[in-house]
Task: inverse folding
């Protein structure tokens, strides 16, 4: 029997590990809310670019937070992000936005400022939170913590397919190089580096498809909930 007390399922891992699609399908299966925390960093980066704020300038980035107007609407396959009331689903997924997000995400005080924004997503009946530090920093007491891994080659291929499906152009070699660079930045930053929580279940998704990973993760939640 699953308990009725609301709980958090934290899903962390590098870009292209499949955690976004996994989080979406787990949230749907449990009928839980969904937090795509990467989208929050991407939206802040988009806002900074819109207003001409230098991504290295932590003080100026912090000044954006009081007016950081974002919301998500549930779409058929993904959540649709809005920034200042404008649908930014396309621009938020661009590689350039991911890259800008990882620059914004290096700043410890910006990360702190975004904690409350992220924690506000936790409402009954529960939350599936997808990111880099969900299990370590944002929801350290999450009932379930998963950390997805996959080789950089596989992750680049997945991202390539995603971008092509969205009608965007992409180059696998560039994607792989960008991903390796972003991993390096995310793993080696001082503020909340990308590492599995000590109590996370690490899943290598290199050889598994979405249905297989979903089954494994849901099975674990049902057995231990
Ligand atoms: O997951 P996604 O590719 O959308 O994340 C974009 C960037 O945002 C990541 O490369 C990472 O630097 C940053 N991020 C983070 N902490 C999170 C989620 C994303 O630092 N919880």
Result:
């Amino acid at each position: 029997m699953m308990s009725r007390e609301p709980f958090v399922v934290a899903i962390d891992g590098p870009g292209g590990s499949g955690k976004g699609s996994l989080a979406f399908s787990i949230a749907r299966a449990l009928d839980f809310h969904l937090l795509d925390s990467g989208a929050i960093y991407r939206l802040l980066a988009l806002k900074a670019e819109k207003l001409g704020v230098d991504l290295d300038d932590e003080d100026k980035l912090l000044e954006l937070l009081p007016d950081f107007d974002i919301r998500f609407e549930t779409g058929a396959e993904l959540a649709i992000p809005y920034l200042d009331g404008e649908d930014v689903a396309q621009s938020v997924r661009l590689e350039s936005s991911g890259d800008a997000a990882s620059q914004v995400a290096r700043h410890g005080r910006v990360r702190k400022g975004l904690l409350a924004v992220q924690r506000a997503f936790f409402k009954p009946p529960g939350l599936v939170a997808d990111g880099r530090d969900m299990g370590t920093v944002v929801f350290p007491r999450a009932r379930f913590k998963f950390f997805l891994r996959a080789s950089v080659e596989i992750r680049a291929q997945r991202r390539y397919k995603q971008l092509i499906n969205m009608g965007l152009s992409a180059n696998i070699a560039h994607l792989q190089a960008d991903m390796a660079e972003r991993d390096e930045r995310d793993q080696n930053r001082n503020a909340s580096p990308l590492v599995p929580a000590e109590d996370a279940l690490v899943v290598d998704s290199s050889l598994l498809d979405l249905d297989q990973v979903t089954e494994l993760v849901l099975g674990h939640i049902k057995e231990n909930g």
About this structure: The radius of gyration is 17 Å.
